[in-house]
Amino acid sequence: MERETRPARARPAAAEPRRILLVEDEPRVRELMRLFLERAGFAVTGIGDGHLALESFDEDPPDLIVVDLGLPGLAGEALIEAIREVSTVPIVVASAKRTDRDRIDAFRRGVDDYVTKPFNPVELVARVQAILRRVGPIDARSDRRLSFADGRLVVEPMVRRFVCDGRAGRLTPTETRVLLGMASTPGIVVDRERLLAIATRGTSETTRTVDVHVANLRRKLGDDAAAPWAIETVPQAGYRWIATPDREDRTGTARPAEATAP
Ligand code: CA
What is the distance in A from the centroid of ligand 1 to the CA of 66? Predict the structure, then answer.
């Protein structure tokens, strides 16, 4: 697709509608929300299942996500956590859960706003518009570009692209999570259990899985396990990211140290 291949910044901000991933399992509520959001000029993808929503996000990251918490498949809370591991895309919760605890938990997971059901759809639209105004004209899907080793490696987590030694390539969603899981704490050993949890979101696989993903990352980055510049193996412990983060990315909007900040 043209959108995939053209540099995001070359596109005028208003050239195409902002895209919203709407995750709500109650069809009548979903269609009502869709109606109001589309009337406000947004392009809306409506999905009623947490796992399918995550697949959709991985395939085609939107500009903003509106998410219910009580969802079949993957619960809204787990969906938010999975997205926050790789992305700072704005997230608005729209849920019947209304206690302070529910709201505080959601904000701690990194959501940007929270509306409780029942809500006025006009208010939801206004909140979405307010957040996207704050995000500004920068394409929300490319708001983070992480650079390492004086630009030797540049990673765009939201679109899972990288350029390394002048070669462009793509990462799988899992490779992206594993890379961020290491690179967000450069110089610090991350144990394989922690990386496994990041890579598989708690599904039961052995830590050998992590080794496979790390090996794939090394191959894509042209890193050598015997003489690494990016990923160092620490026997009996785990892996350590050793490529120095560059202080400021090229867009001036992100710093590697923020990679896992909620
Ligand atoms: Ca629900």
Answer: 12
Query: Is the same domain home to 135 and 151?
Result: no
Q: CB–CB of 104/15 below 8 Å?
A: no
Claim to verify: residue 49 and residue 69 sit in the same structural domain: yes
Q: How far is the CA of 182 from the centre of ligand 1 (A)?
A: 34
Domain that includes residue 72, residue range: 19-139
- Provide the pairing of β-strand 91-95 with 64-67: parallel
Q: What one-character-per-residue DSSP string does 40-57 give?
A: TT-EEEEE--HHHHHHHH
The string of pLDDT tens digits covering residues 93-147 is 999 999 999 999 999 998 999 999 999 999 999 999 998 887 754 444 445 688 9
- For residue 234, how far is the Cα from the chain centroid? 27
Contact criterion met (CB below 8 Å) for 251 and 257 = no
Number of domains within the chain: 2
**d(CA 24, ligand 1 centre) in Å:** 6
CA of 65 to the centre of ligand 1 (A): 15
The CATH number for 130's domain is 3.40.50.2300
Q: How many angstroms separate the CA atoms of 29 and 48, rounded?
A: 11
Q: pTM for this structure? A: 0.57
Distance of alpha carbon 95 from alpha carbon 48, whole angstroms: 14
pLDDT of residue 14: 46
For residue 212, report the distance from its CA to the centre of ligand 1, in Å. Answer: 36
Residue 227: predicted pLDDT: 95
Claim to verify: residue 155 and residue 176 sit in the same structural domain: yes
CATH of residue 157's domain is 1.10.10.10
Q: How far is the centre of ligand 1, averaged over its atoms, from the C-alpha of 128 (Å)? A: 20
